[in-house]
Amino acid sequence: MVFLDESGLLLAPLVRRTWSPRGKTPLFYQQGVYRQKVSIIGVLTVSPKRRRVGLYFSLIAELNVDAYWLVAFLTAMARHLRGPVILIWDRLNAHRSSVVGRFFERHPRFHVEFLPAYAPELNPVETVWSYLKLNPLANFAPSDVRHLTSVATRHTRRLQRRGDLIRRFLDSCPLSF
Fold it and tell me: What was the pLDDT predicted at 12?
């Protein structure tokens, strides 16, 4: 079983908590253009016997998620996963495009299930993005989009090695699998 989702990381930092001496307004400096972003695709995997969990991801700067990037990501992911794959994802337009549909015609071992519309609480990958934004990337003001990409990659790779935390993301989902 595979949960897939996308997110974006902006150059403007998410200020979670800060401090300053009493009577002094805290200042948080940021360089660069705040509209620059890094898009990320991520997949949480669960083995058929529920023993192994995993996280796969792909980052790209200054582009939105589109069908071609999705197909390239799914093709790379398919090389790592054996047997039939149940793919659970939201109703993003790119997920329902003809390009993605042709990918599934060529790869019959993939079976797709869509989450209900406007139900991010059912997708545990959303919890991964929340964790990244609210924990390791909170209060982080990158100097440019390359810096944001490298730091986000480093923290997501670190998260890949945390099977216990990945399992908790899956357990936070009200779906049973």
Answer: 66
Do 37 and 23 touch, CB atoms closer than 8 A?
no
Predicted structure pTM score:
0.84
The series of mean pLDDT values per 10 residues for the chain, 177 residues long, is: 77 68 76 74 91 93 91 94 91 91 95 90 92 88 86 95 94 82
What distance in Å separates the CA atoms of residue 26 and residue 21, rounded to the nearest whole number?
A: 8
123 Cβ neighbours under 8 A, 6+ residues apart: 3, 5, 88, 89, 90, 115, 173
User: What residues does each domain of the chain span?
Assistant: 2-11+35-171
The pLDDT of residue 6: 80
Secondary structure element (H or E) that encloses residue 138, with its range: none
Question: Given this structure, which CATH class describes domain 2-11+35-171?
Answer: alpha beta
What are the φ and ψ backbone dihedral angles of 55, each rounded to 5 degrees? Answer: -135, 125
Spatial separation of the C-alpha atoms in residues 142 and 170, rounded to whole Å = 30
What SS3 class is residue 27?
A: coil
